Amino acid sequence: MMFVFSLLAFVSLACSKDDDPVDNDLFVGQYKGHITYTKGETHIDAKDGKVEVVKVGKNYNFIFSDDIPNLTGVQFEKEGENTVINIGSDEAHLIKIDESTLFIAYTKDGEIWSANCSR
User: How open is the CA angle 80-84-87, to the nearest 5 degrees?
Assistant: First the structure.
């Protein structure tokens, strides 16, 4: 029983708005703002969208609202003191995240994700 309580307390701390994904191997946080997705004729544009960010180790998963497909298994490296940027970033693959902002401009296999969010 004590183990379950300890685990719940740990996960609750991982969700704090002051928590920085750069500093933790386990991070869960929700960012809100403008998100879009395009694939062929499909275009989703949500001005009040949400992105749930789940980090385990160096792998990040981005779970989008509004029926936008998720981005999973993205690896990051530290850029500066409190920001991480995805490994292999360029004009087609850019994701930057810190404790308060999430920026995505990501293209993969003809799919395009974008996000300009905060928490």
Answer: 115
**b (16+ CB within 10 A) / e for 58-78:** eebebbbeeebeebeebebee
Whether 26 and 14 have beta carbons less than 8 Å apart is answered as yes
CATH code of domain 2-118: 2.30.29
- Domain residue spans in the chain? 2-118
Tokens of 61: 């998963």
In whole angstroms, give the CA distance from residue 33 to residue 26: 23
pLDDT tens profile 92-117 = 788 888 889 999 999 989 999 999 99
Q: Which residues contact 109 (CB under 8 A, 6 or more apart)?
A: none
Using CB atoms within 10 A of its CB, is residue 31 exposed (0-12), middle (13-18) or buried (19+)?
buried
17-50 per-position pLDDT tens digit? 556 676 677 989 999 999 999 999 999 999 999 9
Residues facing residue 71 across a β-bridge: 62
